Amino acid sequence: MGNHLEGNHSSGVGHSGRTGSNGLCGMKRNISLIVVHCTATRVDIDFTQKDLLRCHRLKGMSMVGYHFYIRKDGYIWSTRPLEREGAHARGYNRESIGIAYEGGLDAKGLPADTRTEKQKYSLRALIRTLKKDFPGCRVCGHRDLSPDVNGNGVVEQAEWLKQCPCFDVAGDEWCS
Ligand SMILES: [Zn+2]
């Protein structure tokens, strides 16, 4: 995992932003949300961190929009400093951390929970660590941020703008 989780021990001098509200010294963003994504790539295709970077550069970004990227082998890549606002969930980037896992489509190109056991393990370990650093933050899937069209307080399947991340994030054990 990236050493910025425990790094960046600056005093905050010279910064006007709020400090100290999170567990990290010098962290200038207030984190209230962790958003899980998939790359929407086929499970039988390798999508490297270089591919991801190239893809996001084509969208005009200087670096990957997510903060972490979890490959099929379970390796967690730190793709963006946590201090920097992400570019992954419109309207929610300021106060969130974005994590993407490699996959999300089956071999036919249909949305599916394609996470390997190693990806599941890494995702849990990463989210548990982040929840210690940012206590009380909510964990959700990208699709759960779709508008609640009928206003019943629940973003239902019919309201999802997209399938990402192709599994029920809120139903997983890190939310308990
Ligand atoms: Zn997404």
What do these coordinates show?
The protein is an alpha/beta fold and 176 residues long. The protein has a single domain (3-7, 26-169), classed as Peptidoglycan recognition protein-like (Lysozyme-like). Helices cover 15% and strands 15% of the residues. The strands form two sheets. A five-stranded mixed sheet has the order 4-3-5-1-7, covered by helices on one side. A two-stranded parallel sheet has the order 2-6. Bound molecules: zinc ion. Zinc ion binds next to loops.
What is the count of distinct domains?
1
Q: What order do the helices and strands follow?
A: EEHEEEEHE
Q: Give the CATH level 1 class.
A: Alpha Beta
The main β sheet shows up as:
5 strands, mixed
- Return the structural class: alpha/beta
The CATH topology is what? Answer: Lysozyme-like
Total number of helices: 2
Q: Report the uncertain regions.
A: 1-21
CATH-level-4 superfamily name: Peptidoglycan recognition protein-like
Please report the total strand number as a whole number.
7
